[in-house]
Amino acid sequence: MPTESYISLAIYFLAMLAIGLFAYRNSTSDLSGFILGGRAVSPQVTALSAGASDMSGWMLMGLPGAMFVMGYDTMWIALGLLIGALCNYLFVAPRLRAYTEVADDALTLPDFFDKRFNRKNSPVRIVTATVIILFFTLYTSAGIVAGGKLFESAFGLSYEIGLVVTVGVVVAYTLLGGFLAVSMTDFVQGCIMFVALILVPIVAYQTFNNGTELLNTAAQTIDPISEMLGELTVLGVVSSLAWGLGYFGQPHIIVRFMAIRSIKDISIARNIGMSWMTVTIIGALATGLVGVAYVNKTGLQLEDPETIFIVFSEILFNPLISGFLMAAILAAIMSTISSQLLVSSSSLTEDMYRAFAKKEVDQKTMVTIGRIGVFAVALVATLLALDRSNSILSLVSNAWAGFGAAFGPLVLLSLFWSRMTHAGAVAGIVAGVVTVLFWIYAPVLDDGKALSSVLYEIVPGFIVSTVVTLVVSRMTEQPCEKTTETFHIARKQVLEASS
């Protein structure tokens, strides 16, 4: 790669580390600052931080690559994501912001569930933290895989060196600045992704005479939209749209709603966030579609479809711009890894260590333990990422389904149903996780395939978790008076803020 591209990347790396240092000096004196930025994050940073940490490397690599494999069916996934994100802003964000503060200033999702039922170090807290750590380790490995593929494809470095560089920079600024560093770097990274996903498909489109030529050339590999619509199946559409269900249970996304400075700012964040997401998803789909046509037209040998954005960046742009586009991919990858590392670390620190500690630990020590947690999760995820055969989209889809089924129904019922009980919550989490794992791995079909080959595992997982939570809650003793009172106080705050 030309020197100019390396200069662009070096500037990007230095900027991320500088932000981490700034955040270190301003927000990591106590655990609340390290985990939630002191609940003082602006709506602009909240919106782009939520979007960047959500979309990650699969936006620039996984989603365009899916167009090669799934064709226009990929658009159903995009539609499901847009609907799910909008519903998350409308129904979860305001209530969660109010409730987590009213519930004795809950700092993490497990902490919120614990205080939601007026308990201390309860089973629901331990179970939730365990699921977060396990699934986020898998989820984080997906981002690290993307980093390894990027450095191997774009820079000619070994896959393993790519893993180390990606993890090294992310861990450095996350360790330094905690939540504020993650949110501020996400904001910058979101801006870079936005520009890149407009620029790449537009420039790549210029290699064709018109849209008709592009579509006809792409049709040599993928079915035209007319044929795709004619071959639609109910299960296929449901599986794709169901990606949107996952939003309600993604800790690294909904923690942004807990940290925004006020409930009234959520509407601003929603408008910014949904506009950003709509443009970037369309750009990712367009990159994949133009990529299919370009490969067919030029006979380009593309070993890994998930690297089409990288290929376009290298062959269509000036080296200086190419370096900026490589930074966009790193931005997407790093934004999600850092968010996931911080949430995992928060669960290890606030929900595991503090729960089992025999004595009260001071704030400075807790922040130090949080930093150790970041490093530990990053190390395990890197070891998992050494298996380079892993598909980014596959890893993300499994972890996304796991969180969506385990926590999605619980988050919604916690915020909208005062009758839910602690026993119902624990049963719902376990039922959701077990269902997802069974759906992914049990070879119960005639050809030895798992049920996930027929229907995306988040659908049965979400349904089973919801039903089990409702049934068990009805069968167990009603919540105490204080729990019900806290629920109605939070609800009142949301109504007052929206009036």
Automatic annotation (TrEMBL):
InterPro entries: Na/Glc_symporter_sf (IPR038377), Na/Pro_symporter (IPR011851), Na/solute_symporter (IPR001734), Na/solute_symporter_CS (IPR018212), Sodium:Solute_Symporter (IPR050277). It is a multi-pass membrane protein. Keywords: Amino-acid transport, Cell inner membrane, Cell membrane, Ion transport, Membrane, Sodium, Sodium transport, Symport, Transmembrane, Transmembrane helix, Transport. One of its GO terms (molecular function) is L-proline transmembrane transporter activity. Gene3D superfamilies: Sodium/glucose cotransporter (1.20.1730.10). It catalyses: L-proline(in) + Na(+)(in) = L-proline(out) + Na(+)(out). The keyword Transport applies. Coiled coil: none annotated. GO terms for biological process: proline transport. The chain crosses the membrane at residues 6-24, 75-92, 126-147, 159-180, 187-208, 228-248, 268-295, 315-344, 365-386, 392-416, 423-442, 454-472. It is found in: Cell inner membrane; Cell membrane. CDD domains: SLC5sbd_PutP. GO terms for cellular component: plasma membrane. Catalyzes the sodium-dependent uptake of extracellular L-proline. Belongs to the sodium:solute symporter (SSF) (TC 2.A.21) family. NCBIfam families: Na_Pro_sym, sss. This is Sodium/proline symporter. The lineage of its organism: Bacteria, Pseudomonadati, Pseudomonadota, Gammaproteobacteria, Oceanospirillales. The gene is putP.
